[in-house]
Amino acid sequence: MRTLIGAVAATLLLSTAAFAGQTEGLIKKVDKDTMTLTLDDGKAYKLNPETDLESLQPGMDIVIAYDVTNGENVITDMQLPDSDTN
Q1: What residues does 65 pair with on adjacent strands?
Q2: Residue 75: domain span
Q3: Which pTM does this prediction carry?
Q4: Residue 45 in contact with residue 34, Cβ under 8 Å?
């Protein structure tokens, strides 16, 4: 019986673990009130409170690493284009 309970507990822990992903696209919208970033594919991603929102502008290319936590895409890392491109 303990083995069964342990197996069920392990399965529950695995099913609630965060899913990590990566995406890229053009920024469509930056919402400062909800701290979200929306890409041109319509998907929204939650920004970290320390994010410099002034550096994020619609139309910019961006690469995002994120976790899915409690049904939200939460940004864990992002890469903006080089500002010194010709």
Answers
A1: 22, 77
A2: 19-79
A3: 0.72
A4: no
